[in-house]
């Protein structure tokens, strides 16, 4: 589909990135594993209640998220109970949970009725020396036993290499091959401290893709946002052959957080045309997680931030009044959002005329100029925008005085 123009009839709610037609990538074959309930909850100060976790899990399932990481059962009895409850909710999504590379953790996880366990092990020199105080061989031995234990109990396995991106690649691949030999269903590349960039994400996943039978053992990508590249790296990994992409709602998670679900899903739609996820409640889900986590969402956050569909600039609003897609990549309704046309310092005459018409007023030329001038003075001297109520008051005052 070369030279595909942006075609409104064909893409009524959003523009796809038609430049993708010119770049060569592997076919994208992905699933989403959302880790809000585990890595998201590791955000300092966050502790979801059982009801909150179950409600978020239901919401993720409604969107069509393929896998939900429900928690880390050895953290507490209550955590174990929540993981087990989510696993028994009858969701379409498969449920997994985290365990260290120890038999005790895997036993606890197996007892939670999850579809698969994510057994993690760090193999970087830093982690072996300062965290485990053990040799790589000793740790691998325990990890492989843990995989075998889970498999013997009829449960799926993801073998997750924590700090994979600071681990020598041959060591990483050897460990992944050991996991593959033990029939691990997934191997996970965790960019635990967010050091990757898109080109190194591509390089690393490509190396692993060429070494592993990905029909049997699929590659997962788990990105942190320490350099603000988590979503970009996740997509680069998908282009290089990673199958399971890890996300959290609002990008919450350890330190700077993880790849944001809403951004990854929107990119899957715009960049690769993947439209099987129901995006209509993304803003609702974002608010639900904001309230449950007590973590504000940045006003300019992509897709779900309050300003994602807010416009003030005169040139923009004038065009938006004709067709919103002039300045919106996708319509707010697509994600359950709302467009806001703001009256402020940068409002132009066409925009103001459109906005006042929208609230039921039409002014003659003189009155309109008076209103326009008043708005400039208020917004510049008081350094703020003018809300609808105030705008109406200004209009009524002008009409009264004439
Ligand atoms: C990258 C990630 O996100 S990893 C997940 C991080 N999440 C969490 O830590 C969840 C919250 N954690 C907790 O509730 C607790 O730390 C628990 C329940 C997991 C463990 O608690 P404790 O038994 O008190 O251990 P503590 O936290 O002090 O230390 C961690 C231990 O786990 C070991 N460990 C850490 N990762 C692994 C691993 N992948 N495989 C095996 N052992 C591991 C450490 O070496 C240390 O062992 P040690 O006690 O023999 O020194
Ligand atoms: O790769 C995974 O599945 C989990 C690892 C993880 O949480 C991390 O290293 O940050």
Automatic annotation (TrEMBL):
<dbReference type="InterPro" id="IPR054691">
    <property type="entry name" value="LeuA/HCS_post-cat"/>
</dbReference>
<dbReference type="GO" id="GO:0019752">
    <property type="term" value="P:carboxylic acid metabolic process"/>
</dbReference>
<dbReference type="InterPro" id="IPR000891">
    <property type="entry name" value="PYR_CT"/>
</dbReference>
<dbReference type="InterPro" id="IPR013785">
    <property type="entry name" value="Aldolase_TIM"/>
</dbReference>
<feature type="domain" description="Pyruvate carboxyltransferase">
    <location>
        <begin position="30"/>
        <end position="283"/>
    </location>
</feature>
<dbReference type="Pfam" id="PF00682">
    <property type="entry name" value="HMGL-like"/>
</dbReference>
<dbReference type="Pfam" id="PF22617">
    <property type="entry name" value="HCS_D2"/>
</dbReference>
<dbReference type="GO" id="GO:0004410">
    <property type="term" value="F:homocitrate synthase activity"/>
</dbReference>
<keyword id="KW-0808">Transferase</keyword>
<comment type="similarity">
    <text>Belongs to the alpha-IPM synthase/homocitrate synthase family.</text>
</comment>
<dbReference type="InterPro" id="IPR002034">
    <property type="entry name" value="AIPM/Hcit_synth_CS"/>
</dbReference>
<protein>
    <submittedName>
        <fullName>2-isopropylmalate synthase</fullName>
    </submittedName>
</protein>
């Amino acid at each position: 589909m070369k030279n595909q123009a942006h075609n409104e009839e064909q893409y009524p709610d959003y523009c796809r990135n038609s430049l993708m037609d010119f770049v060569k990538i592997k076919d994208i074959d992905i699933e989403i594993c959302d880790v809000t309930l585990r890595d998201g909850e590791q955000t300092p100060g966050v502790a979801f209640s059982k009801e909150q976790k179950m409600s978020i899990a239901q919401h993720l399932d409604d969107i069509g998220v393929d896998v939900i990481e429900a928690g880390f059962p050895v953290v507490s009895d209550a955590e174990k109970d929540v993981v087990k409850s989510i696993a028994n909710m009858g969701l379409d999504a498969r449920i997994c949970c985290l365990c260290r590379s120890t038999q005790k953790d895997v036993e606890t996880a197996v007892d939670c009725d999850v579809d698969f366990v994510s057994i993690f092990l760090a193999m970087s020199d830093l982690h072996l020396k300062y965290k485990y105080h053990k040799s790589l061989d000793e740790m691998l031995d325990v990890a492989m036993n843990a995989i075998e234990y889970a498999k013997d109990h009829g449960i799926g396995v993801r073998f997750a290499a924590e700090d994979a991106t600071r681990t020598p690649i041959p060591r990483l691949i050897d460990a992944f091959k050991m996991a593959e030999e033990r029939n691990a269903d997934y191997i996970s590349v965790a960019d635990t401290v967010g050091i990757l960039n898109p080109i190194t994400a591509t390089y690393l996943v490509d190396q692993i893709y060429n070494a592993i039978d990905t029909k049997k053992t699929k590659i997962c990508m788990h990105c942190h946002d320490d350099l603000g590249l988590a979503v970009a790296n996740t997509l680069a990994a998908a282009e290089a052959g990673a199958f399971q992409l890890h996300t959290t709602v609002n990008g919450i998670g350890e330190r700077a957080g993880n790849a944001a679900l809403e951004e990854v899903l929107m990119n899957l739609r715009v960049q690769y045309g993947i439209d099987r996820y129901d995006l209509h409640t993304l803003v609702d889900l974002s608010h639900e997680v904001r309230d449950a986590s007590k973590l504000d969402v940045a006003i300019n956050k992509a897709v779900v931030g309050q300003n994602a569909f807010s416009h003030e600039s005169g040139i923009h609003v004038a065009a938006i009044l004709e067709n919103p897609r002039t300045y919106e990549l996708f319509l707010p309704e697509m994600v359950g959002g709302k467009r806001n046309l703001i009256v402020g310092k940068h409002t132009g005459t066409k925009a103001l005329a459109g906005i006042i018409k929208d609230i039921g007023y039409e002014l003659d030329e003189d009155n309109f100029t008076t209103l326009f001038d008043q708005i400039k003075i208020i917004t510049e001297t008081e350094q703020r925008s003018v809300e609808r109520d105030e705008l109406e008051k200004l209009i009524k005052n002008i009409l009264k005085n004439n």
